[in-house]
Design brief:
Helix content of chain A: 25-40%
Oligomer: homodimer
Strand content of chain A: 25-35%
Largest interface: A-B, 66 and 66 residues
Number of strands of chain A: 15
Largest sheet of chain A: 9 strands, mixed
Structural class of chain A: alpha+beta
Radius of gyration of chain A: 22 Å
Order of helices and strands of chain A: EEEHEHEHHEEEHEHEHHHEEEHEEH
Mean pLDDT of chain A: 90
Chain lengths: ~400, ~400
């Protein structure tokens, strides 16, 4: 068994095609309103691959979620097809047929089994998929598949995203070099349980389906599910993982010590993608990290961190570069977490603003200047226990309103 | 016993001084940053009165909440003092001393027992009360007490409110005419459990303290706690009721049929004040009523209605006059309420947009035009049971951001 106690994932280019044996593409199929830009993406493995998925908990799940959840049951995938511009949600049984038709068209274009194709969609809710456009997009995308196609695929899944999101890392485990790469989309409607968030991760490590499931679920819990932009969650979210084993090595099962570096690499990729999503929150001018320590439990810490991160008053204060810790205290108090009103401590952008539950003297101008940065940390120490949690979000600006008041019309 | 089966509250002017035996006043004491406008209010009864209070559930409760909650335990009050401009929250033991000093100064100025004075504050968090200004404001306000002073008091408790909120109604019960009047403040940070919401209600009906408690709690549950502007809740909220019995009649205890018309009158006043608060939500251009019917239970309906009413995506769609029912469906799905994805129905501004969980054909231009009104109803029928709930909120506009990004600086 290789020594896996000392490893560090190294960043590499390539996104979902960084790992061996994966190709991808993105093409413009005219699905989007207005028709501009790429909107169909394919990610294809060179062989049937161990696979796992995590899906939205929204009870109004979109058709592609229903179809992909079913498809993932045996834990094997060879391809993923994604369209942007139309969510195929709230479309009833016809929507399910459309999602299955998308799956079948992909299988046919690639010459793989239908049961090995996952389907994802993002965009407007309640409108039927323009199936003809999607199908011709799929056949174009199949023709453009490329082992350097990661960036093109990442671009094709964007909706209100302002930049494409991809990253990849490499770990050396004994004699093998395993790569984990991923891409994601998401900017509005993001919150735990992965609202309107799509994430696709590939690896050439030889995971079993059970191992893939375990590491994916753990990584999503600590990364994608720690992002919140506006508290809304979508009908369409999913994160999928394919592991084709193309880099060699004996099969890695749950409990194998070699799973640890793969899990770490996967979490590195997922965390980076999740932070990119928060950074790209609709209208965001500042990335916000809320850390809560000293809580009665980790779940209390999470409750407090999410309540602070989702408070519109906290988020507008960050937009206004206002070190308004009173709003943080207010959110803390209503979070439901155990609070000692005479002990908590709040630092904003590195400036201690409140201790023992009360104001401390601080330089407001300096604190406001410190908040004028690409990233602001709001750190709360509750001083009642050892629980801790970190949540990522962004500020709430005029542009959030503009984007969402005008999104459809 | 009087016939109380057929009564209808009649609207009357006067706010908290509409009922007999109450006087009020509002004065400018210079507590607000900048110092403009009235900021100290008094409401005084002609005798010790049966009283009840409902307070914030925020665990970081402000000093005046702690003091008034204590004061209310015996169920008797004769006066209420309120200041705007400073919340006296997150101010530690000194804040408690300040709140008690405010209470004592009022008792002295009015010549009543300290134990009969409730204290309320609203404004900036974490800054000590300018006690000298507050005390001289109290003595000015005592000198200006007037049985027509309701409007002046209502004005003095405003913060980001754009209009003063008061109303009163009268009911005839047998040979007696009883009046219930009230005033409130609140615009941002409003949500159930009465965030940054102050409400003061007076009546000349001869309620006992227990009866006052019962009717107040019931009315608040169905009115003030059904308002949400941004999901944030405050450290300072309270609703207080004083019943002095000045209109005559035998004491009304719990179970007395004469309590019913008083409860109805109280609920009418509280509902009107609550709707005014939603209408005055920070930056609001449109009042929004979300009604959910056909839910598995009333609490499921409430969960769904609040999730829809608090969704920033739904609120910005209303601002954009976009009949975007997909966002309503999304909120419904993530609310935690039992949903049958193939049965729910959504109407926006009277236009059916979704049935059986899917889009129906409707005229988008006409629906958008119908939304361009002072009030928009979003009606959801879940078709799974008999539960129902109504929640009031407003849209989310550029001005919400402006007001809250600039509030303190």
């Amino acid at each position: 068994v290789a020594d896996v106690t000392d490893f560090a994932p190294t960043s590499v280019p390539g996104g979902v095609t960084a790992a061996r044996g994966f190709s991808a593409s993105g093409v413009a199929a005219g699905i989007r309103n207005g028709g501009a830009g790429k909107d169909v993406a394919l990610i294809v493995a060179d062989r049937p691959s161990a696979a796992a998925g995590v899906f939205t908990t929204n009870k109004v799940a979109a058709a592609p979620v229903v179809v992909s959840r079913e498809t993932l049951v045996p834990g094997v995938l060879q391809a993923i097809v994604v369209n942007a511009g139309n969510a195929n949600a709230c479309t009833g049984w016809r929507g399910l047929e459309d999602a299955r038709a998308m799956q079948a068209a992909t299988a046919e274009a690639l010459g793989v089994f239908t049961e090995l194709v996952a389907v994802a969609s993002t965009g407007v809710i309640g409108v039927r998929l323009p199936l003809g456009l999607v199908e011709s997009g799929i056949s174009d995308a199949a023709a453009e598949l490329d082992t350097n196609g990661g960036a093109s695929a990442a671009e094709a899944i964007m909706t209100t995203d302002t930049f494409a999101k991809e990253c990849a890392v490499r770990v050396v485990v004994g004699e093998h070099t395993w790569t984990v790469g991923g891409m994601a989309k998401g900017s509005g409607m993001i919150r735990p349980n992965m609202a309107t968030m799509l994430g696709f991760i590939t690896t050439d490590a030889p995971l079993t389906a059970t191992a893939a499931e375990e590491v994916l679920r753990a990584a999503v819990g600590r990364t994608f599910n720690r992002v919140t932009v506006d508290g809304d969650t979508s009908t369409n979210d999913m994160v999928l993982l394919m592991a084709n084993g193309a880099a060699g090595g004996e099969s890695v099962e749950v409990g194998d010590p070699r799973l640890e570096p793969v899990a770490a690499a996967l979490e590195t990729v997922a965390a980076e993608l999740a932070r990119m999503i928060a950074r790209d929150g609709e209208g965001a001018t500042t990335f916000v990290e809320v850390t809560v320590t000293g809580a009665a439990s980790d779940s209390d810490a999470e409750l407090a961190a999410f309540t602070i991160a989702e408070s519109p008053l906290v988020k507008t204060a960050v937009f206004g570069r206002d070190p308004n810790w009173g709003r943080v205290a207010m959110a803390l108090g209503r979070s439901g977490a155990q609070v000692d009103p005479d002990r908590f401590e709040i630092a904003v952008a590195g400036v201690l603003t409140c201790a023992d539950g009360q104001a401390v003297d601080f330089d407001e101008t300096a604190a406001s200047a410190a908040m004028d940065a690409p990233g602001v940390v709001i750190a709360v120490d509750m001083h009642v226990g050892d629980g801790e949690a970190t949540v990522w979000t962004c500020d709430l600006s005029y542009d959030y309103i503009r984007i969402n008041a005008e999104y459809r019309t």
